[in-house]
Every structure is written in C-alpha cells, then in structure tokens.
Amino acid sequence: MKLKSSTVPATVSFSRKTLIVHLTTVCKKDGKETIRCKSGDLPNIKIINITFSGEKGSFIMRKKIFYFVLLGVITTVFAQQDSIVQLPTVQLSDIRLKAAEAHSIVVKLSDSVLQNNTKSFTSLLRQNTTLYFKEYGAGMTSSVSFRGTNASQTAVIWNGININSQTTGQTDFNNVAMGGFNTLTVKSGGGSAFYGSGAIGGSVHLGHHFKFEKALHINASSSVGSFDNYINSANVTLSNPKSTFNGYVRYQNSDNDYKYLGSKIVNENGEIENFSAGYNFANRVSKKDIIKAYYSYFTNVRNLSRTLTAPSKSRLDNKNTRTLINWEHQETKTTYNLRIANLEEEFIYYENKRKKHLGTGSEVSTYIVKADVDYKLNKKIQLKGAIDANLIEGEGDNIGKNTRRSIAGIVSLTHKPFQKLKYQITARQEGSNLYRIPLIGSFTANYQLFKHYKIGVEASKNYRIPTYNDLYWTGLGNPNLKPESSIQTSFNHFFTYKKTSLQVAGFYIDTKDMIKWTPDDNGIWHPQNFVNVKNYGAEAILQTQLQYRKHQLHVSATYAYTKAIDQETDKQLIYVPLQKVNGNVHYQFKKIGAFFETSFTDEVFTNGNNTKALKGYAVSNAGISFNTQLQQNNLSITARVNNMFSKRYEVLASRPMPNRNFLITINYKYN
User: Fold this and answer.
1) CB burial readout 20-33, b (16+ within 10 A) else e
2) What is the CATH number of the domain that holds 180?
3) What's the pLDDT score for residue 522?
4) How far apart are CA 320 and CA 532, in angstroms?
5) Is residue 80 part of a domain?
6) CA 175 – CA 256 distance, rounded (Å)
7) pLDDT tens, 442-471?
8) What is the pLDDT of residues 309-340, one digit of tens each?
9) E strands along 263-420, which residues?
10) What is the Cα–Cα distance from 577 to 564, expressed in whole angstroms?
C-alpha cells in the first residue's frame, strides 16, 4: 500500500463567490504526525482551513454537486484504509445538546413512547411535554408556544441543524415526518449562542441513534381509525461493526370529517395526505473517523378545514427535503466535527383547490456549513471553537427573489474546578449581509448539592432575525425591521432517586423589538418592531418507574405555569395558557399493556385586551395492547381511544377539535 503526501482541496465555485475546504492527509509514525506518508503509516484526514471569499464573506454551494464533491474527496482519502476497530455506540451527533443536559430542563421521550404514537408529531409533543400548540384543526397547520414565546422563537434542530422555515421563521409540527428519527429531546431555555436565530423559548431536537453491531431490525405497522384514517409505515435497520443503515417510509391519508360537537357541522374540506421517506447512514471509515449521511423527504397535501362560521375551498401543498453529511474525527484530546447540509422547502397555496392555475407559493433553498473543534486542555477544562455559515436563496409570488448570507464564530469554555461544580461560558458573533447582529452569549452552571439533588443556573442573550414574509411580503412586509433580542435567566432543580426523577425550573425572559403584525389605519396588517414582552413562570417534569415481579408501571407528568405580559398593554399575550398539565400512566404485565393519558389546558385569551377567551379543557386518551413473540418475531396489537369522554374544545377560535375517535394499530418487529 503506497500513500502519498497530499493536500486535497474541495472547491466549488459559482459566479463570483467561492467556498474552499482544504483537507490534508496526515500520517502518524512512531507517535509523531507528518504529512509525508509512507507505506504502513496510519493516515488521517484533517481540515487545514476553510476559506469563504466573495462579497461580505459570502459563499455559494449548489445542492447535490457540493455534497458529491466533498463526499468523494473524503471517501477517496480513506479508501486505502483496511483496518476497522469497533468503538462504542455513537449516541448523538448533536454534542452541544448532550453538554446542555447537565444544567437545563430536558425531556427525553423513550423509544416506546415514539413507537406507540402513530398519529402526528403535534399530538406526541402535546401529550408528553409542557409545549402548547395552536392547531388550526386536526392535522392542519400547527405552531408551538414554548414558555409563552411565539412559534418563531422555538428552534427545531435536526441532527444539529436548525430546520425552522425561512419564510415563516417557525416549524409546522404537522409537517415533521414521523419515523425519520429515533431520539427526541425537548430542551427548555435560550440556545441562540449555539443554534442561532429563534432559539429563545427553547428547542426541540430530532436525531438518530447509531449502533455499530451485527443486526437486522425490521419494523412495519399499519393503523386504521375513525374518519377513514389510514397510516402505514416501515422501518429497516441493517448494521455491522463497520457501518449501519436505516431506511424508512410512511404514508397517511384521512378524510378527517369529524363532527363539530354542539352543532350540525362536520369538518368539511379537512382531508389530509402525507408521505415521507428517507435514510440514516453511518460508516466507520477508520479507527477515529465516522462519516454519516442523513436524508429526509416529506410531502403534505391538506385541504384547509372550514370554521364554525365559514366554509372553505382552500388547499395547502408542502414539500420539504433535507440532506446532511457529517464527518466526525476523534483524537485523544481533540474532536473535529464537520457538517454540510442542504434544506429545501416549498409550498403552494390555492384559495380554491379546483383552480390550481391560480395557486401562489414560494421556494427556499438553505445551504449550511458547520465546523466544530472540541479540545480537552485537561480533565477540568474543555475549549470549543465553531464556524456556522449559511446561504439562503428564496423566491416566491409574494416575496420576490432575495438572498441572505451569514457567518458566525462561536467560542466556548467548559470548566470543572472541582468534582461537584461545572460551568460553561459561550459567545457568538455573527455577520450578515442584511443586519448588524450584536455579540450574544450564555452562562450555565450546575452544582451537585447533595447525592440526590443538583441545582443549575442559566443566563443567556438570544436573538431572532426577521423572516422572508416579515421583510418581503408584497405590499405588507417591512424591509426596515430589526432583529429581536432577548435576555433570559432560569434557576433549575434536579432531584433523582433510583428510577424517579423530578426537574423543576423558574424562568424569566425579557424580549425587546419583538416583531408583531398589527393593522394600520386602513386595517392592513404589517410587521413592526415595537412590542416588548416579559415572560416568567415555572415548569416541572416528573418521571418514575415501579416494578413488582412481572408488573411494570411507568408514570410521567408535566406542569407549566406561564405569564407572558405585553409591556404596552400589561395584558397576557393571546393563546398563552396560564397553566398546562399532563399526566401519563403506562402499565405492563407479561403480554398485556394498558395506558391512560390526560391533559389539562387553561383558558387562553383571543384578543389583545383580554376580553375574549376560549375555555380551558381536559382531554383524556386510553388504550390497551397485546404482544406475542415467536423466536425473533414480535407482533403487537394496540387499540386506543382519543378524547374518550368526547369533550368539546377549541384550540383556536371557531375551529373545534375531534370528538371521540378510535385507532387500531398492528405492529410487526423482527430483531
């Protein structure tokens, strides 16, 4: 085997803007590194530098071409390595999240919870977290409120990449494909220092957990339910000590024609149909290097439901594709992580679904390069440096054609001065072709006060930049908007005893220059920077597990108390409940399982002066399951009833949610 000293430039140039990534093969001999590799030396790839050139440090990478070039370079460099060493399971690509778990309020949903929920991403999070969702009817557009913030102030992170829409600044949680991830974590508190724009109230993290072991897993399920609801999915994982591949596909369609309780109206024009497919792949290319690739495709066709007062003929089509390549390199004291991603989002809106030639929409492409270096100076001090570069190209009927560019530098220090105390200081400076973004940062710390009790504190400055709709919407947008800024503090308590954990937090958020759409003198709505909002409250998360012989009992509960006060009116923000409570009980005895879920949501105001409100409501679900196993095959049947007491309630005014409904699921597993 002959190895040559070489520097491999991965250069993609379009127009006058260029991104150059210099990759160098570095060999080790007698414990020393050299770029002059000889036969028998152990080669490793290293990033020498990343160069952005062009106007204002901009860069352009075209989808597909750049990924194939970079992947080809890395694959070529490592193709000559013939020895693979099996290393421990790789837990998460998002190492930033893993570090935050020591001091932040975090909810992790188990595999069983993810697999038992086949309906929607919104219903999964609504029942198991403190998040409040504003849903325009079942399966319709769904936006989140986290600690009383608005939907664009919650970041959704996919394998370490922020995937919030560039047109709206938020994520429609009914546009997130179920099945494309096997880890789900909800983190409370600000995270803009690491995740950029929008991570003010908190963040939702989707990831895939890889295991390098010889295995074949097949999971297929089929569900049928009320309102002609059909859901079919399949998931396959094939792995060995060197590589692992996971592929998935899911399809759902429903007439969604439930009755509006208390009236003679049914949910007309509420049909939904969505399809998702993708893969997660990892390859151990050397003793210290892993290449990961992720791909997600999702389409959603929804007729938009009528209200209690007006029929509807409208329809909304969405399509999202996400591609990510991730290289990880581990040395004794240093870890390198390089991510290159492309996010594509597209929507078309039809005022009348029968007149498709009159549809309006937009397309946005986002290109992301993130490079991290973690260095352990010693057992007590760890340093991190990162570069986060973004290019966003958007074009649409109402937003025109616009390009946004940004590049951010991040530095972080983690220090553990003694065994019970650990703190972290992080700073982020970002440059943009549109805005002057101030230096932001965060401070976090945790202290093990007693064996079963730990305290944590967080303080952070966060921000959110205006969206395409805010800036460019024809005749309505405001190109002079400033980014929002926010100061946040949180004091957290962690109690653990055997299989019981309790997390309690008190928080405070002060947001300035909040962007709010308001009507002018002619009744036309425009976005403006003028609202200051202060949020404060508390949240608690309890989880416990009990076992007696073959009886198992899992109990979880969440509680949120939230005040979100508009400083101009001294009133609670609309659609922010004062209290929200969830309770879940799961029981298992041999092959039989049963569960009961209940959720209470306090009243919400529907106008700014708090004179109109939707009543609070409690909704309960229950179900039973039967499991049978034959050698490596497992078959389970689950029957559940949602809204079992047929409670009439509205999440948004004039948009009632479903009455009592049923869902039966058959699930097959091969391990």
Assistant:
1) ebebbbbbeeeeee
2) 2.170.130.10
3) 75
4) 33
5) no
6) 16
7) 999 999 999 999 999 999 999 998 988 898
8) 999 999 999 999 999 999 999 999 999 999 99
9) 272-284, 289-303, 315-330, 334-350, 360-376, 381-396, 400-418
10) 9
Say whether both 244 and 197 belong to one domain: no
Q: Is residue 77 part of a domain?
A: no
> What range defines the domain where residue 145 resides?
95-203
- What pTM did the predictor assign? 0.84
Same domain, 347 and 419: yes
- The tens digit of pLDDT for each residue in 595-636 reads 999 999 999 999 889 999 999 999 999 999 999 988 889 999
Domain count, the chain: 3
Could you tell me if residue 258 is left (phi over 0), alpha (psi between -120 and 50 degrees) or otherwise beta? beta
Are 261 and 357 contained in the same domain?
A: yes
> Where is 96: in which H helix or E strand?
helix 95-100
Same domain assignment for residues 215 and 168? no
Distance CA 410, CA 57 (A): 16
Could you tell me if 264 and 320 lie in one domain? yes
SS3 99: helix
* Two structure tokens written together for 601: 């949501």
Identify the domain boundary among 164, 185, 203. 203
DSSP 573: P
H or E element at residue 116: helix 111-116
**CA-to-CA distance for 403 and 364, rounded, in angstroms?**
10
Q: How many residues does the chain have?
A: 671
Residue 78 lies in a domain: no
Residues 6+ apart with CB under 8 A from 135: 122, 141, 142, 174, 651, 652, 655, 657
Q: Is position 397 within any domain?
A: yes
Give me the phi and psi of 114, to 5 degrees please: -65, -40
* Strands 592-601, 617-630: pairing kind: antiparallel
**Closest by CA position to 128, among listed 105, 156, 107:** 107
**Per-residue pLDDT reduced to its tens digit, 538-548:** 999 999 999 99
Per-residue pLDDT of 185-244, as tens digits, reads 999 999 999 998 888 999 999 999 899 999 999 999 999 999 999 999 999 999 999 999
Residue whose C-alpha is closest to residue 484's, from 419, 421, 535, 410:
535
Query: Are 50 and 135 in the same domain?
Result: no
Amino acid identity, position 492: N
The Cα 465–Cα 515 span in angstroms is 9
Closest CA to 190 of 535, 646, 528, 516: 535
| Same domain flag for 534 and 664 | yes
What share of the chain has pLDDT > 70, as a percent? 84
Q: For 314-318, which contacts have Cβ atoms below 8 Å and span 24 or more sequence positions? A: 314/269, 314/349, 314/350, 314/351, 314/352, 314/353, 315/349, 315/350, 315/353, 316/141, 316/347, 316/348, 316/349, 316/350, 317/347, 317/348, 317/349, 317/350, 317/361, 318/172, 318/175, 318/345, 318/346, 318/347
Domain stops at, among 150, 185, 203: 203
Same domain, 150 and 14: no
Token pair in block for residue 325: 């390549």
Tens of pLDDT along 111-150? 777 776 667 899 999 999 999 999 999 999 999 999 999 8
